[in-house]
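Narrative of accomplishments. A recurring question from our advisory board has been how the design workflow behaves on a single, concrete structure rather than in aggregate. To address it, we present the structure tokens for one chain from the evaluation set, followed by the sequence designed for it. No filtering or post-editing was applied between the two.
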């Protein structure tokens, strides 16, 4: 799918997972982007393995921490592709080439997942194969040209 969000264009992406209230996207070059879906307006936090513009962050070894109002929300290790909650009880996720590690669980799939969202991770459960969540309404989804 292709997503447009403001001036940002996400070409040929898959929503690998919903991690709490964040959509984790992977583009065709395996770069990760993270979009906060909570609230009235979606917020791009990570764009192509880098902190998005206008996002508060702190550099750490192999990545960065995303910060909001002085609170460290999560870290993103761009080399190992690991997202780790710092202020939330969400399990750590590692995005591998054909699977995702969620805590100690490894879930694998064919790259063409056939759903809007591959995996949704919440504090108490994991769900596989979901349609696009309503929170993505602010994003414009367009078919491949």
């Amino acid at each position: 799918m292709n997503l447009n969000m403001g001036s940002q264009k996400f070409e040929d992406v898959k929503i690998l997972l919903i991690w709490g209230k964040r959509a984790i996207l992977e583009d065709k070059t395996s770069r990760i982007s993270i979009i906060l879906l909570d609230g009235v307006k979606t917020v791009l936090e990570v764009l192509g393995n880098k902190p998005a513009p206008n996002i508060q962050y702190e550099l750490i070894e192999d990545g960065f921490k995303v910060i909001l109002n002085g609170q460290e929300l999560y870290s993103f290790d761009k080399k190992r592709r690991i997202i780790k909650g710092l202020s939330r009880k969400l399990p750590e996720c590692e995005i591998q080439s054909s699977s995702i590690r969620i805590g100690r669980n490894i879930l694998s799939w064919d790259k063409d997942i056939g759903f809007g969202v591959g995996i949704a991770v919440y504090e108490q459960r994991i769900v596989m194969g979901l349609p696009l969540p309503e929170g993505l309404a602010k994003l414009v989804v367009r078919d491949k040209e």
